[in-house]
# Entry
Amino acid sequence: MNTINKLTEIFSKFPGIGPRQSKRFVYFLLTRNNGSLEELSKLILELKKEVTVCESCQRFFPKTSQSKICDVCTDKNRENGMLMVVERDADFENIEKSGAFGGKYFILGGKVPILEKNPEQKIRVTELKERVQDKNLKEIVLALSVSPDGENTEKYVRELLSPIVEKKKIKISTLGRGLSTGIELEYPDSETLKNAFKNRT
Ligand SMILES: [Zn+2]
# Structure
């Protein structure tokens, strides 16, 4: 396979990018000068060196100190009793930007598709079970995408956590409807997210 095809295949695996768009990326790169291509490859190589995964919420954050826990998880002004579970880092970023939520987060790392045979390989099951052992926890808010796979993920997570939440009397809620169907939580505007949080059930 030549370089054009190899790169096209790599870009087509990016979220939301189809084969046609990925080929456009490759031809775009071919129009750039060597300096900007070198900078791009350097940044890609640095990405993993400079970013780490928070041991508590599992989100990516820049390694600024020796801490293995991110600034959101260590923030003392945040409510320890509330934990919002989201699918991906982009969802976290959008909800955080909206100011709708002042508790802590957990990033599942994906969703569980309907009929999935190995759900534990699709989301961070072990880390989530560990996280909800927190003695301060009073409520878990499931903020998952409004789609059949999102609903399936919700069902799976509820079942997964039910022994723990029943024992520890933790409430599990879901964001109120009003979010458009098929949408990932990366997209709704701040007002919509605030209302969805207020109307959680
Ligand atoms: Zn964190």
Notes: DSSP finds eight helices and six strands in the chain. The two ends are 52 Å apart (CA to CA).
